[in-house]
Design goal:
alpha/beta; Rossmann fold
């Protein structure tokens, strides 16, 4: 196992796309006047299209794409209005973008439109299905920060089916698991409360690649402190929003440009050290076939201090909509009862973000009467469990193709 290179194990090799696939790029206007775009690849004769979208990542070259094309399915890959950018990611706007793509695919005449949601894309798809399945008048009207969203005036076609591949519990619930509560000063990425440091030998940590075993007392204090840190950031976000609203109200009364500047001036939450899930180094916790390490590499004791991670930079609005487990609407477990279309729940047995207990809860919560649950060996991003073994992406593609065939 390579543990010295940061990011090791995060990416998998891509299969070449088959020939004779027609590729077109589409631009759509959303119901709130934004622009979304998608890439459509169509093998000859394809009448079913599989959609991939993630709220915060570009999935144009997702590893599943060539397998789906090889099996004769059209593939639609779409971004939100905030691709690769957490700064102002509002999940309520992301499903407005999601809707624009589904409307376009229906206009193009496909017989079946099936969502493939991978990782955070699974929660996005569940959130979309939950809202699309409601009468227009019962849909959300605002983000958690109070920004209006036109879901009630948005055409939101339900997909004909959903594949939830390696679904994690949602960005906010996931961040609550991985945030480092030992940060003593939010302005200092190196500040540490030693009593909560997950990578301190005094708290049970053993240097990589040897697995750590934490005791119950430390874990209980750690989880409590994680929740407390998220709550503190919530409070700061709410404080900033209140100040902005007050300045905007003052501007409407006085017309003073200085008040307007105060209302619109961006203040950005910087959240250091969000790669500190105890399960990534203590493999006895929620055991599965995962290797040592996190989503971001084989050395979470190092990557926790690096640039890559969840929720690093976010406006107060984006924090409340996406990253706070306390306020986000995009939570897989809460959205799952609203998913009524035929669904495939697909576990990767070496997942570093979604564990067997999660899959069991999701299985119970999903509202569909037509649910298939399956598992394949692989890591969260579709890598192989051992060198030379088939990738999780390849094995998942076989299960997905079989499920699509039986759903036809």
């Amino acid at each position: 196992m390579t543990v010295s290179r940061l990011g090791a194990g995060r990416y998998t090799e891509l299969l070449d796309e088959p020939e004779n696939v027609e590729t077109t790029v589409h631009r759509m206007s959303t119901s709130d006047g934004a622009t979304a775009s998608g890439v459509l690849r169509v093998p000859a004769g394809a009448r079913t299209v599989v959609t991939l979208m993630h709220p915060r990542q570009d999935v144009t070259h997702h590893a599943s794409v060539p397998y789906l094309l090889r099996d004769g399915y059209a593939v639609w890959t779409q971004g939100s209005r905030s691709p690769n950018n957490d700064l102002n990611l509002l999940h309520e706007q992301a499903i407005v973008d999601f809707a624009a793509g589904h409307v376009r695919l229906r206009e193009l005449g496909f017989e079946r439109v099936v969502c493939l949601g991978h990782s955070g894309g699974a929660t996005l798809a569940a959130f979309y299905c939950q809202q699309a399945g409601l009468p227009a008048g019962e849909r959300l009207t605002a983000t958690p920060s109070g920004r209006p969203v036109p879901l009630g005036e948005t055409e939101m076609p339900l997909p004909d089916g959903c594949v939830f591949m390696a679904p994690h519990p949602g960005q906010g619930a996931l961040l609550l698991r991985v945030i480092d509560p030992s940060v003593a000063d939010e302005s200092d990425p190196l500040s540490v409360d030693p009593s909560l440091d997950p990578f301190a030998a005094a708290n049970g940590f053993v240097a990589a690649p040897e697995p750590t075993t934490y005791d119950a007392g430390f874990m209980a204090a750690y989880r409590e402190a994680q929740a407390a840190r998220v709550a503190r950031i919530d409070a700061r976000a709410q404080e900033w929003l209140a100040e902005s609203r007050a300045a905007n109200r003052a501007f409407k009364v006085s017309g003073d440009a200085a008040e307007r500047r105060r209302a619109i001036a961006p203040r950005v939450l910087t959240t250091y050290r969000t790669d500190a899930d105890l399960r990534n180094v203590d493999l006895s916790l929620d055991p599965n076939e995962r290797p040592y390490g996190s989503l971001f590499g084989r050395r979470p004791d190092l990557t926790n201090y690096g640039l890559v991670g969840f929720g690093r930079l976010a406006t107060a609005e984006a924090w409340l909509s996406t990253w706070s487990a306390n306020t986000t609407n995009a939570d897989f477990l809460r959205c799952a009862p609203g998913v009524t279309v035929p669904s495939l729940l697909l576990e990767l047995t070496g997942d570093q973000a979604s564990y067997p207990a999660d899959i069991a809860r999701f299985r119970e919560a999903l509202g569909t009467d037509d649910l298939t649950v399956a598992s394949v060996p692989g890591t969260h991003f579709g890598g192989p469990l051992t060198k030379g073994a088939p990738t999780g992406t390849e094995l998942a593609a076989r299960v997905i193709a079989d499920w699509l065939t039986h759903q036809a």
